[in-house]
Amino acid sequence: MIKRISIFLYILLFSLCFPYTFSAAENTTPSGIPIEELEQFVDDYAEEYIGSTVAGAAIIAIKDNQIVLSKGYGYADVENQIPMDPDTTVLEWGSITKLFVWVSAMQLAEQGELDLEEDIRTYLPEDFLTKLNYDEPITILNLMHHNAGFEEYIFDLLFESPEQLVDLEESLKLAEPEQVYKPGEVVAYSNYSTSLAAYIIEEITGQPFYEYVNEHIFDELEMNHSTMHLPVEDNQEITRHKGIGYFPGENGDFIKSQPFYISMYPSGGINGTAADLAKFAQALMPSEPEKTSLFQEDQTLQELLTTSYAPEEGVPGLAHGFWEYDGEYRGLTHSSNMQIVPEDNFAIIILTNQADEVDLLFGLTDELVGRGDQTVQENLPPAAEVEGSYLSARRTSNGFMNLYAYLAPLNVKPMDNNEIELDLAGFKATYVQTSPYVYKLKSGDDVFIPSNVMYFHVNDGMAEQISTAYADYLPMDKSTPFLLISLGVFIWCMVYFLISPFVLMVLAFLRRRRKQKTAAVAKWNWLLMLSGTLLAVNIAALVIRMLSNPMRTYSELLPHFIGNYLFTVTSIIAVVMMILVRKKASLSKMQKTGYLLTGISSILFIIWLIIWQMYA
Q1: Half-sphere exposure of 13 toward its Cβ, with a 13 Å CA cutoff?
Q2: CA nearest 531: which of 578, 580, 591, 590?
Q3: Residues 337, 361 contacting (CB under 8 angstroms)
Q4: DSSP 94-114
Q5: Is the dihedral of CA 439, 440, 446, 451 positive or negative?
Q6: pTM of the predicted structure, to 2 decimals
Q7: d(CA 139, CA 454)
C-alpha cells in the first residue's frame, strides 16, 4: 500500500514539474498550431502584409486565460517611425464596440431592469420611432440579432469634424432608417439597432452610455487605456498614444486616412489598446474556479455566449450579439478584430491602423481558429437550385443610394452538382454543400471568411433567402434586361444632355449669321435642353461628391435633391409648351426630329430618376 502511494506521489510531482509533458496535445491553437510555435507562425504570416498592404498591427493571443503572444508589427506612425505596441498604442476598435452594448444589456437583464423579449417601445419615449411599417413588436433580442427590420442608412453617421457631433438621442432621431422587413425575418447588420439599444440603456440607467461602460466594464476590468467618450481629443493621454490611420498607396507607401467622428458612438466609438481588449476577452472566458467580474452570476455569462438565434439547426447564428464562427471549435466574434473560442479557452485579437483590412483580420484569424467540419453528406439536392443573383439585405432601400446594391450583387452559379462559385464585386470563392442547402467555404478571397457558412432557404426548388454572417441575401428583384435597359438609358441621357448644348450653340451661331429668326418652339427646346443638362450635371456632381467623401450629412446633399425637383419641373413645363407651340410653327423634318429626340430623352431621364429615387 505504501509503495502504491509513493508511486502516485512521484507521478503527481513529476506532472507538476513538467506540465506540458501531459498536456501538449491540448496546448495548441484551435487549428492545431502548437503554442510554442505560435509566434513564429504569426511572424511569418504577418511578414507578407506588414509594410506592404498594412502599416501596422497589434496582435494578442490568449490560451487558458493567459496571454501567450503579445506583439506589435509595423508602425503606429509611419512618418515618425513609432512602432506598434499592444500595451500602449491606442487604435480605433470599430464595430467591436457593439459587444460592449450587448454585455451592458445582459448586465441590466441580470438585475431585472431590462427584459430582452419586451417590446423596446416600452423603454423609449412616446413616438420615438416614426418609420415603423409593421405592428409586430421589436425586442432587444431583435436588436442583438440585427433582425429588427431596419434598412441601411448611411447619412448623419460619420462626420469629418467633432463640431458636427450631436448627442445619442438626437443622432438616433436624425438618422432613423425605415423599417423595411418584418421583425425577426431578415438579418441585416444595423448600426442603428445597436445604438438604439445603447440609448435604451441610457433611459433605464439615467446616465450617458459611455459613463455606464466606464463604470461597469472599463473600471471593473481595469481597462485604463481605452475610452468610449468622443471626441477623443478631449482625452490628452489617449490622443498622445493614438496610432495614425492609413490606407495603402502605390509602391508600398501609406497615405493618412481622414479621421472621422460618430455620434452613434456605441456602434463603433471605442479607442483603446489591444491589451485592454485582451482583458475584455479574458473576462468572457474566466478560468475555473474564477468568476467573471462582468456579471454577478456565472449563469449570465453562459447565457450571453449561448446561441440565441440561428437560421437553421447546425448553422452558425448569433449568441446575444456575438456572431458565431464555424471553426474547429465554435467561435464567437465580431468583425474578426476579436474572436474567442470558449470551448478551447482561446482568443485572438488583431487591431490594425487601416480601415477595411482583411488579410490579417480574416486570414490570420482563420488560420488560428481553423475551419469547421466539411464532411459531405450523401444524396444532397442539386446546386442548380441555388443559382441566381442576390442582393444584400443590408442595403439602402429608400433614396438614391438604393442603386448601389444593384452594382454589386452576389452571383451564385453551380460548378457541379455539389459545389458553387460566388462572385461579389469581383471577389470570388468556392463553396461545397455539406448538408441540405448548407454550403461551406472551400477556397477563395479572404473577404468571404466571415461568411464561411451559407444556408439557402429553398422552397419548391427556388432559393428565397440566403443566411450568412452579418447579413442575409434576398433574390434580385429586378431582371437583367431591365437593369441593362436602365443602364443604357442612363448613359444615353447623360451623353445626350452633356453634348447637345454645344451642338445647339453651333446651330444658333449659324442661324444668327444667316439672320434667321428663332421660333418660339426653339426657345422652349433650349430651355428643355438646358434643364436636362443641369439635371445631368447635378447627378454627376452628386456621384462625385459621394465617391470622394461618403461621410456626409443628409443636409449636405439636400441642394442636389432640390435641384432635381426644380430642373424636372422646368423640363415638364418646357415639354408641355413645346407640344402646344409646335403646331403653329413651320418646322423642317430635321427640326421635328431634333425636338422629338430631346423631348423623349428628357422624359426617359425623368422616369429613370423616379425609378432610382434620385429625388431623395
Answers
A1: 6
A2: 578
A3: yes
A4: GGGHHHHHHHHHHHHHHTTS-
A5: positive
A6: 0.90
A7: 25
